Structures are given as C-alpha cells and as structure tokens.
Amino acid sequence: MSGFRVGIQEGIVAARPTVDAFTRANYLGAVASRVDSFWVPDHLNALFPRALWQPKYAGAAKVMPSVDAFLEPWTMLGHIAARNRIGRLRLGTSVTDTGRRNPAVTAQGAATLHLLTRGRAILGIGTGEREGNEPYGVEWSKPVARFEEAIATIRALWDSHGELVNRDSPHFPLRNALFDLPPYGGKWPPIWIAAHGPRMLRAVGRYADGFYPAAPHQPQEYARRLDVVRAAASDAGRDPRSIVPALWMGVVTGRSAAEVDQALESEMIKAWALNATDEFFAQHGAQHPLGIGFGGGQDLLPHDWDENTALSYIKDIPREVLSETLLAGTPAEIVDRVAEWRDCGVRYIVLANFSAFQRSLRNGMAANVPFFKIIRALKRL
C-alpha cells in the first residue's frame, strides 16, 4: 500500500430528527473529503458515564437523547451501502466483538457485506469490552483465549470451500459445520485486529490483514508493537509487510486554540481519559481515578454511576493525560501530531470526532469544519 490513508468513524447513536441523521451527514462529509473508508462501532452502550449526558455537560444531549442508544452495526452498514450510491467508500466495523458474537455469525455478516458492496468490507475485530459482555451474561474471564479461537474459527469457515468443518475448540467447537457463501472476487474481507497486549499482537501476526489498535499510547510504543506484529507474521510464514499498520484515535478540535481548551474542560470529554489504563496514568506521574492497576476501557463499567460519582472520577484528571488520550488541537497541531505517528510506522488512521461532546452545542457543531480540514490535510501526508 502506498501513501497515507484516512478513515472516519461515525458513532451511530440514535439522534433527531431521524435516527441516522448524523450518520448520513458524516457519510456525505466523508465522501466530500475523499476519505478512504467509513467505520461504525459495535457497542450496546457507551464507554461514557450516562449520568453526565445532560445538556449542561454535553451540548449534543439536546439533539441526541441518549449516549447509549447505539444502533446495530451490521444492519447500519447494510443501510449505508444501500442508501449511498456515491463515493463507494470501504465500510468497516471498528471494532466488532468476539465475546457477544458467535464467530460463524460474524463470518457470515462480514462475507455478506463484502458481497453486497462488491469487495468493500473490512472486518475490524477485537476482544470487546467488559461493558458489552458481562452485564449481558457473557463470561469475561478469558477474553483473549476466546478471541484467538473466534479468529481461527472465522478463518476455518472461510477457507472451507463449502466442505463440512470439524474443529475442536474450548469455546467454539465445530461439528460438521457448513459455510458456503463465496468470497467476492476470490477474496474474503480483510481482517483488522485491535490489539495491545503481547498475546494479541502475536495474533495479529498470525491472522490479520491489518494492525488496528486504539490510542492511548505513544508513537514510539506503536513502533515497538508493530515490530512484535511483524516478527509474529514472519514466524507464521507470512509476509510482515502485508499487514496494514493502522490506528484509531479520537479527535477534539476547534476553530481556535481557545475553543479547543474550552472543549477539553468539558465533563464528557474529560471522562474519555478514564479509558486509559493506570499504567498510562503512571507514565504521566498520576494515578487512575479508578485505582491502581485499573485496566482502562476494557474494564470500564460507568453505567451505574450517579452524577456526583462520575464527577468525582473526572475532577482531577491531569490535562496532559487527557491530551495524550486524544488528538486534541487546532488542525495544524493535529496534523503535526499525526505526522509523528506516521514516522513511527502508521500508514492508515481512522478518526472519530469527539468535539460534539463538549458543553457548547454550537462549538461542537462548528468543529465539523476544522475536523474535515484535518481529514483533507492528512490525505496529503
């Protein structure tokens, strides 16, 4: 792959006046900015405290009744593909879950989207998070082991050529399983894996077409992890350079530095820093508000916090921690920061615009202009 590529993630949370109003607007903005791909998350609920989703803390609460009203991703991707005949962007999940979803169903969904879009689907996949599994009765003690078996199962079904598949597995045993959907043009959807820990990085090397972690971590740490991925690919007899080095990051921007500073003081945006690990806080000389050893977004369960509890967790988050969990700044500042990631190996970045989560609805909506300015500038990196 040559050049630097850019994707946009849309939140797909039910809005007004129609549930997909923001999704439609952001898709058209993505097409106009000539991005390479359009992504949707796979969540039942958000990684933000619902007690703070009030207009006094987040202006977007005036037009989006709930921060947790996530639409189902595969249905939405099919809707986007059918409704939007212009642009024909690649469409991906960012990322789907091997906890809640049986891998045979995921294999079917991704293959179906790939056929319907004539080869434009990307299967972004990871272990998922505790918030989308444990409250719904999904066992959460061994998410990485479950993930490895799910990916192996998807590959086994896709590579079966319609023959019966038998495979022993502690999580997903196959007994005369049949998968007979054809690949589009002889190719299955590329698999991009959201990976951070050593075992997940090795899984990327063995199975993935793309390395797709989410910040927060430093560009130099990304380079180190990419080396682990490529070594694992080489050990598995694969071409290490065939794996796309990608990255997901949230963005907070504005028309001026003052607007960015104001946005970063907003409660919902500050709450995003709770998705960082205690190790990340410690690197900045701080302790995670949820305690020593807290695992970050994978273990975050903010839905039963009351307003005062949520405020108590975010009140002392250091600005430098928050700024490092996001791409925060004016367009020029953000482009310079992304260039650092590019210099450490990233060749494909997917951005989610968090600017609308600030207190001011007007500034949050106005931030779309600098956000798409960033997208266009990154296309020239």
Automatic annotation (TrEMBL):
Looking at the UniProt entry, the stretches that span the membrane are none
* Record domain Luciferase-like: where: 36-347
UniProt keyword terms in alphabetical order: Oxidoreductase
PANTHER family attached here?
5,10-METHYLENETETRAHYDROMETHANOPTERIN REDUCTASE, PTHR43244
Q: Which GO terms describe its molecular function?
A: oxidoreductase activity, acting on paired donors, with incorporation or reduction of molecular oxygen
Read off the Gene3D superfamilies from this record.
Answer: Luciferase-like domain (3.20.20.30)
| Name of this chain's protein | Photosystem I reaction center subunit VIII
The UniProt entry, under Pfam families, shows: Bac_luciferase
Q: Native species of this protein? A: Mycolicibacter sinensis (strain JDM601)
Q: What is the lineage of its organism?
A: Bacteria, Bacillati, Actinomycetota, Actinomycetes, Mycobacteriales
What superkingdom does the record give? Bacteria
